[in-house]
Amino acid sequence: MPELAPLDPRLKALGLTSPVALAPMAGITDRPFRDLVTSFGAGLVVSEMVASREMVQAKRSVRDRAEIGARVEGTSVQIAGREAYWMAESARLLEDRGARMIDINMGCPAKKVTGGLSGSALLRDHDHALSLIEAVVAAVSVPVTLKTRLGWDDDSRNTAALARRAEAAGIRMLSIHGRTRCQFYKGRADWSAIAGIVDAVTIPVLANGDIVDLSSAREALSASGAAGVMVGRGACGAPSACGAIADGRDPVRPWNLCDIALEHYEAILSFYGRDLGARVARKHLGWYMDAAGTPAASRRQVLTAPPEAVPGLLSQALSPEARAA
């Protein structure tokens, strides 16, 4: 089966190796997960959103989210904030730490983010949004990108205007989630609405929202005219999804799912330490067992076991025999 799409030269110029990227997801796209997804051929991986001021002020938990790791090629770090000074300073710090790209978050719909006039709240104040973009672009030499939504609500789908101004200010790529902020994650992503933003700029655009397999990726590209796609929740429990979609394949459960899950578990424990790592790993182990069709009893056993017992129980839970029970 042919690849999803030829690699757009504009994406290649930014260092992307395929037209399929991993979206930033809070509590999910940490360094262990990004490393794993990268190993399966994602064209770009983006960190969890990091708060710009807290990053500069050296809060350990925030800096952990921005940890680059050994696989720095194709690694972008996403920052959020409402003050130009802290946005610029965090971008400088992240470039010094090895980030190959800085992504600005203007799409997060969470109330704790928009209530602080960050994330998608910036869609209601383009002048202020541009002041942040200009500060970040001026602060670093690496490419700066922007992730956002169609608008604040259905009465203000004005992102095409913001996109034009962002391009003029030096933004090198856009990622557009095909929903408004007020939709949160309800309903269906409107990929066709992204087309107006694609037409408004000359920089590449990635379509995001509800892209979980090859069919949805192709439909999103066709409807939007985007240069590529960004996979979010479709990669949970399926770290090979981005690479598979890029290659023109559906992200089916690999034969070595158990090996992948065990490798991921050990990487999480190594990165966070035994106790915190065990808690962080639970959601990922749950997604792997969901993908394998693990029975509920075995699933509970894995998720409540002490860390040292998890590898053996997980191997049993992901075995063909367990799924047939």
TrEMBL record:
FMN binds at P24, M25, A26, Q78, K147, H177, G232, R233. It is an enzyme of class 1 (oxidoreductase). One of its GO terms (molecular function) is tRNA binding. The active site is at C108. Residues 22-292 form the DUS-like FMN-binding domain. Its cofactor is FMN. Keywords: Flavoprotein, FMN, NADP, Nucleotide-binding, Oxidoreductase, RNA-binding, tRNA processing, tRNA-binding. It catalyses: a 5,6-dihydrouridine in tRNA + NADP(+) = a uridine in tRNA + NADPH + H(+); a 5,6-dihydrouridine in tRNA + NAD(+) = a uridine in tRNA + NADH + H(+). Its EC number is 1.3.1.-. Catalyzes the synthesis of 5,6-dihydrouridine (D), a modified base found in the D-loop of most tRNAs, via the reduction of the C5-C6 double bond in target uridines. Belongs to the dus family. This is tRNA-dihydrouridine synthase. It comes from Jannaschia aquimarina.
